[in-house]
Specification:
Blueprint (H helix, E strand, L loop, with lengths): L4 E6 L1 H18 L6 E6 L3 H8 L7 E9 L10 E5 L9 E9 L3 H12 L4 E9 L12 E5 L5 E2 L15 E4 L6
Parallel strand pairs: 2-3, 2-5, 5-6, 6-7
Antiparallel strand pairs: 1-9, 3-4, 8-9
Helix pairs in contact: 1-2
The structure holds inosinic acid and magnesium ion.
Magnesium ion (MG) binds next to loops.
């Protein structure tokens, strides 16, 4: 285990099994369709790569990078689009793939934006859900794991751009960010 971690929360095996199960559920829903799968950079990339390989329907891939103003381990402020989509979402069935829903600010705003741009449908797939932290009215259509209010890293998730390449998810030692 990485020395900066309190403990491992989700092992590689647990991640693999659950992501595959959720992927199969999503696949059934999109049978016969061709969704545009939007990965939210950068936190979702590892989950995204594993998730799309569980889909058998034809997919198109696209990415967005957004950030809320402010820094540290608490998200705050206004949503800023740092990288926009290459594809037009009008009339498309869109699947947003996110690493974690915390306050819900990011996804509440993104979902609204994509609907305003004319998406036919918007589904939210998240790896992690911190339901106890929710401040905005948003809930995922598909969620792999509910977690407690702890700061987690690994499998794409970072703290100050570190730990994204850990193959598992761990709880970061509080002393490192408080
Ligand atoms: P929200 O807009 O408050 O829902 O925040 C979502 C974003 O906050 C995620 O996409 C992450 O980038 C970040 N975030 C929230 N909690 C964690 C965590 O425990 N570890 C790493 N990033 C987190
Ligand atoms: Mg993120």
């Amino acid at each position: 285990m990485h020395q900066d971690l309190e403990r491992i929360l989700l092992t590689e095996e647990e991640l693999r099994a659950r992501v595959a199960a959720v992927g199969r559920e999503v696949d059934v829903r999109y049978h016969g369709r061709r969704p545009l799968v939007i990965g939210i950079l950068k936190g979702s990339i590892i989950f995204y790569a594993d998730f799309i390989r569980c889909l058998t329907c034809p997919v198109e891939l696209d990415f967005m990078a957004v950030s809320s103003y402010g820094s540290g381990t608490v998200s705050s402020g206004k949503l800023k689009i740092r990288k926009d989509l290459d594809r037009d979402v009008a009339g498309r069935d869109v699947i947003i793939v996110e690493d974690i829903i915390d306050s819900g600010f990011t996804l509440a705003n993104l979902r609204q934006l994509l609907l305003e741009r004319g998406a036919n449908s918007v589904a939210i797939v998240t790896l992690l859900n911190k339901a106890s932290r929710r401040e905005y009215d948003i809930s995922p259509d598909y969620n792999c794991f509910d977690i407690e209010d702890e700061f987690v890293v690994g499998y794409g998730l970072d703290q100050d751009e570190k730990y994204r390449n850990l193959p598992y998810i761990g709880i970061l030692k509080r002393a490192l960010y408080e």
